[in-house]
Amino acid sequence: MADRLRDLGVEAEIRSGEALDLIEAWGGADHVVVVDAVETGASFGTVRLWDGGKASFPADKSVSTHGLGVSAAIRLARVLGRLPDRLQVYGIEGRRFEHGTEVSPELKPAVEHVVRQINAARRL
Amino acid sequence: MSSHTKTIRVDTLARVEGEGALYIKLAGERVVDVKLKIYEPPRFFEALLRGRHFSEAPDITARICGICPIAYQMSAIHAIERALGTRIDPAVRLLRRLFYCGEWIESHTLHVYMLHAPDFLGYQDAIAMARDHRAVVERALRLKKIGNRIVTLLGGREIHPISAAVGGFYKVPRKQQLQELVEDLKWALDASLETARWSASLEFPDFEQGYEFVALRHPDEYPFNEGRLVSNRGLDIDAAEYEDHFVELHVKHSNALHSVVRGRGSYLVGPLARFNLNFDKLPEVAQQVAREIKLVIPVKNPFRSIMVRGVEIVFACAEALRIIREYEPPTVTRVEVPNQAGVGQAITEAPRGILYHRYAMDEKGLIIAAKIIPPTSQNQKRIEDDLRDYAVRLMAWPLEEASWKCEQAIRNYDPCISCATHSLKVTVERAEADGV
């Protein structure tokens, strides 16, 4: 996904998802979009979009090795005054979260959808 | 007299890397059962490595852990180089130590401030703690970032470092690039001294155990990548002898394996072991702050591991500055390593403790067998033994607080559950009955 976004001229980074790392990564940016695999119980490949600036952002359910994940990053950044002006979080419903596995090929349409959404939002 | 049975299960162990599962059953004044449940050892990765060329091992194993990828790369690289008789440039050796400094700074900072400190200060999590201790958390952010800069510079990218290789590095930094880290590292050294001193202000339960501490020991330096494996009970072996002295036991309630010293029992790896067995190899600035905060060997209270990690961050910052001062780019950044059959073992000191790798290659350089024993796997039985002794004093506590105290006891070890397993679900359940 990061490569696709860069091809479209969008600044994109791959990060571990650890909270402190995310807060540093988005420092200085006005508009940040975080994309992550999620497990919400929705059907595989479902794409959801959250407003990271809202206090009601859902809590982490740990599906990876991030000691403190995206939700903790947002809540911590809010306390420290380090939230970007605009923070959006895309979650793509996953199925396999083991280390060392590739992204499931069936997720390609969802990934491409998110890429198009991010690119479109950038132009607004 | 009626017997009072209490069962504690923690459903989700918070603030460890990955997730964790714990089951404790108390009856009267006795701990009847302790199970630290772990699912899936890293056998997936051992299987994944089979049939791959040895040059792929650093990249594959780096994905075992999001917090300690360098540890996996270093153990893999050293084991394979040993098998193939590879000799590296001395400057490459220094760069590998610098690489590890970055990871230790990152990992220890994350644990000390974000995962462990909330326990001692009475906060549910680091976010709650940040509301009242903002400066402390800001310090952690900046410290971790400096560690990350080192890792990114040497590793080639932010995550899943790609530059470390069998034989050296694909790309090494210029001297100037390392010099650009110096000012930040000087700040980091001061901040880490402040961290160590701050850690001494915390309150610690009076709880000591008779551990067998196991760590690397090197004649000239605080250990990262090299040394003999020693213990406070007379162990002194080469990495090649590891499997002669350590046994992995399959435990019914856990998909991980419990490591024991053959003929003895559980043992402890990680900062306490390193500190107790290598205090004299710490640079003076680290020894001095340890004395100042009255951290005297042998440290046998696992809760004081937060202090030891604080001192190890001091060491890592000081060592990084020393290496940068001495560094001149290597003449050969990466030696060619021809394909040949061989078997090699190596142990390096991940932030959480010794990480053992063994590889066997065929004449084409393809891996035919791999064995990986993470530090958290090795501490597994020791954590259970700690809980068995610690939990009995929690009988009188309300369940919720007793469960939290048990979680704290596990977090002393900074367990990287993702290394020992895919995911570990901690369940603490309480049952109360008279006479049952």
Describe the structure.
The complex is a heterodimer of chains A (124) and B (436). With 124 residues, chain A is α+β, with helices and mostly antiparallel strands. Chain A contains four helices and three strands. Chain A has one domain: HybD-like (Rossmann fold), CATH 3.40.50. Chain A has a three-stranded mixed β-sheet, with helices on one face. The longest helix of chain A has 15 residues. Chain A is globular. With 436 residues, chain B is α+β, with helices and mostly antiparallel strands. In chain B, strand 9 and strand 10 form a beta hairpin. In chain B, the strands form five sheets. In chain B, strands 3-2-1-14 form a four-stranded antiparallel β-sheet, with helices on one face. The radius of gyration of chain B is 21 Å and the shape is globular. Chain B has one domain: Cytochrome-c3 Hydrogenase, chain B (Orthogonal Bundle). Classes of the chains: A alpha+beta (124), B alpha+beta (436). At the A-B interface, helix 2 and helix 3 of A face helix 1, helix 4, helix 5 and helix 6 of B.
Q: Would you identify the CATH H-level superfamily of chain A?
A: HybD-like
Quote the CATH topology of chain A.
Answer: Rossmann fold
Main sheet of chain B: which strands, in order across? Answer: 3-2-1-14
Give the helix proportion of chain B (percent range): 40-55%
- Major pleated sheet of chain A: 3 strands, mixed
**CATH superfamily name of chain B?**
Cytochrome-c3 Hydrogenase, chain B
| CATH architecture descriptor text of chain B | Orthogonal Bundle
**Would you identify the regions of chain A where 5 or more consecutive residues have pLDDT less than 50?**
62-66
Helix and strand pattern of chain A: HHEEHEH
Number of helices of chain B: 15
What is the H-and-E element order of chain B?
EEEHHHHHHEEHHEEEHEEHHHEEEHHHE
- Number of self-contained structural domains of chain A: 1
